[in-house]
Amino acid sequence: KQAGTADLGQVVADIAAEMAARTxxxxxxxxxxQLARVDPARFGLCVTTxxxxxxxxxxxxxxxxxQSISKVFTLTIALxxxxxxxxxxxxxxxxxxxxxxxVQLEHEHxxxxxxxxxxxxxxxxDAILAGHQPRETLGEILRFMxxxxxxxxxxxxxxxxxxxxxxxxxxxxxxxFMRAHGxxxxxxxxxxxxxxxxCAIAMTCRQLAMASxxxxxxxxxxxxxxxxxxxxxxxxxxxxxxTCGHYDGSGDFAFRVGLPGKSGVGGGIxxxxxxxxxxxxxxxxxxxxxxxxxxxxxxxxxxxxMGWSIFGS
Length: 313
Ligand code: GLN
What we know:
This protein is α+β, with helices and mostly antiparallel strands and 313 residues long. The chain contains 14 helices and 10 strands.
């Protein structure tokens, strides 16, 4: 079959079957017991297309910790609240450093290089808080996720949130350093509390693929008619996912998959094919950079089989 004419449902089923049989999964995140306990053999995949068709494979309806994937959605909320003023607090360049790196903050007066490394996401969370109570802000983030996914059951895993807080010394260091430079403006424990909780949202591949539709389809869901952001804003968020969505593995992800995407240490990845599809994949084993190993391979297969790339057909 020619690239682009393959049967998407069959491709999704084949990839899920292949990935479920593989054992070269990489290591599950171990910095908190709640993530270390997850069954590494889990694999889920979900793809939605323009007309609203949903294709699922494997454990597409099993919830997992979305972790840093939440940063895409908090960025969307923050841009809605403060617009381009956000870029005074956070940059738009890939970091080339690990996701929790602190070194470059010192050189740039506490301004994180991009919204997807931890420091940048903490600064974005701080912009959303803006004097509100953490509970209200968290409620707003959760409502946004439920609205996007059209699913009221999405919730926060409180055990994960508690453990993130109990072990988050490095994130606390980042937040305090940014507070010293005035980039973080709320009480540090408020900002960190909201950050730890939005990382602890649990979602399925199906819910994440649904929630990502606005990024794939010019800021709106063409099937439901829901408008979320302008087409320009969706393009810009996609650009940031392409350049920064996989930390210092972003170049490799663009090379291998060729689509904007965002990973989390729970093993999830969302990716978008502009005007064509939104995708979510989950395999808990991670590569050295902290991105899902089989998740990336699955996206590589999917993109190749369907002829999907933002760099040409
Ligand atoms: N909660 C994690 C942290 O702050 C998120 C990191 C990630 O998913 N890359 O360390």
